[in-house]
């Protein structure tokens, strides 16, 4: 059996981490955007071998347990102990790992949904396990619940699925510009001194957004957060200023990656494309993914 | 400005009411299915008059406050006090009112989303208001959160949006048969002696479903609930037995309407159609609505 799941990429605009010993109570407050591109997970399940085997691959390359702790944690929990067969988890990422697109959560949630679909379970049980894996292995705190919410989401109560509460903003048909320039390691930032500033600036941004809950306001607050925490500086800040010259709403920094994002109106797409081509930086322009993650049986060679 | 919202019809398979003085803590446990047909709400908002006017119409017929308490409650809360203009709420229902399709919740949620989209607010604030209106005016307890969840939903923690927790079952491509034969008044059933039986049978069904969370199991449990509570009897029971003869999974009763529903596999559609045509009963066959409710600006004469 082959099962496919698609999980949107999720970029965070601003956030407040909420740590807790119980992984389901750990999470984050904040706001973010789900994209039409993201993570595709294909789970291939074939019985009939003498042992229970679980394998994972990222973008076609096999990965061992040490390099895919989150995926193996999820799979080990969902493949029954007495299953004799081969389970292969193929994860394909539209954006680079470590750049702040929620790839690890996408892999965790996609794996959890695909294996729950095959072996039994519900959306909530799958989502809880993916969140737990993310928190325990420090992949992220708010991506799983953000991806489940879709669209432009606002985490108003921290926690995992069934505990956290996620709101959504209304939005018109914006496109999203993303400029991924390099990785930032979530666990290093969250272990450092900047956490205090993130808590102060993130809470301020969330309060202000809830008073005026519009995507345009979110971008202004995201930018204040990025600058106020000291995370957006140097070359990245200069690039943000260049981009701002051709857009109505401010660009901001992808949390947490060395990269930028912005909301584009239709008539701004061409200008920003030629600017970024001139500057020679990599970029992508995608839609906002408003629907849920997808999961279902996959028939090779097309739909049945 | 014209804003359109679509809210799926929501039929309940089994339930346990949970009453509470705080409307947001009132709700229900249980399971249900969202359909591809449902309620379309068009909110027309035009400023520039000397007074603030709110009007509503059901299926094209104007309705006064006494006959549309829920809609007016929602609209009065969302149209600003100082707005000078005409607000018209046009609600169109694909299924008849009072037959257990969640029309009142569809109207409440559609109105809340459309007016929040126009005047400001978020998905969560709109959803809370719609649930509150439903509970206060006894439209229903679980339809709003069920409609927000989409698909085949299981209410595992009772309460309104942000408090209740709703799970989803995985399902393959079933069609849904609905046979609406007449109205049942929610408030009369919930005020009667049957509530005790509903609580006992509903809790039993929920526990059993969570141990084996599959749509096929839900139908078996729904049928036990319908019979165990004494709600499914007489002619309706006989019709259910006729339908069962041509289906793999049992049919059950729409809670709360005088009607039946069933999950259809592709190869069962023709048989059930000819059976129901022979019997001369009204029916409809629709898909399961897995996506979210929709809301957005509406451009007359087609999409822009």
Automatic annotation (TrEMBL), chains A, B:
The lineage of its organism: Archaea, Methanobacteriati, Methanobacteriota, Thermococci, Thermococcales. GO terms for molecular function: ATP binding; kinase activity. This is Pantoate kinase. Residues 85-151 form the GHMP kinase N-terminal domain. Its EC number is 2.7.1.169. GO terms for biological process: coenzyme A biosynthetic process. It holds the Pfam family GHMP_kinases_N. Keywords: ATP-binding, Coenzyme A biosynthesis, Kinase, Nucleotide-binding, Transferase. InterPro entries: GHMP_kinase_N_dom, GHMP_kinase_PoK-type, PoK, Ribosomal_Su5_D2-typ_SF. Pathway: Cofactor biosynthesis; coenzyme A biosynthesis. It catalyses: (R)-pantoate + ATP = (R)-4-phosphopantoate + ADP + H(+). Belongs to the GHMP kinase family. PoK subfamily.
């Amino acid at each position: 059996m082959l099962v496919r799941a698609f999980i949107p990429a999720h970029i965070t605009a601003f956030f407040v981490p909420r740590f807790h010993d119980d992984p389901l109570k750990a999470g984050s407050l904040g706001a973010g955007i789900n994209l039409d591109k993201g993570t595709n997970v294909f789970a291939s399940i074939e019985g009939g071998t003498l042992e229970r085997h679980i394998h994972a691959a990222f973008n076609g390359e096999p990965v061992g347990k040490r390099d895919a702790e989150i995926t193996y944690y999820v799979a080990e929990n969902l493949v029954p102990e007495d299953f004799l067969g081969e389970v292969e988890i193929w994860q394909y990422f539209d954006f680079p790992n470590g750049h702040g697109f929620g790839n690890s959560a996408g892999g965790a949630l996609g794996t959890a949904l695909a294996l729950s679909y095959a072996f039994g379970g519900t959306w909530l049980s799958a989502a809880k396990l993916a969140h737990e894996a993310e928190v325990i292995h420090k992949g992220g705190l708010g991506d799983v619940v953000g991806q489940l919410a879709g669209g432009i989401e606002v985490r108003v109560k921290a926690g995992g699925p069934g505990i956290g509460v996620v709101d959504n903003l209304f939005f018109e048909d914006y496109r999203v510009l993303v400029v991924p320039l390099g990785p930032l390691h979530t666990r290093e930032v969250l272990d450092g001194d900047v956490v205090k500033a993130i808590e102060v600036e993130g809470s301020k941004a969330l309060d202000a957004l809830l008073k005026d809950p519009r995507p345009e306001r979110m971008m202004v607050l995201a930018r204040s957060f990025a600058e106020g925490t000291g995370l957006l500086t140097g070359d990245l800040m200069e690039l943000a200023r260049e981009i701002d010259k051709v857009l109505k709403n401010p660009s901001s920094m992808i949390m947490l990656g060395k990269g930028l994002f912005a909301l584009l109106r239709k008539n701004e797409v061409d200008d920003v494309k030629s600017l970024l081509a001139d500057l020679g930086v990599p970029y992508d322009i995608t839609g906002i993914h408003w629907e849920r993650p997808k999961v279902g049986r996959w028939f090779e060679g097309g739909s049945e």
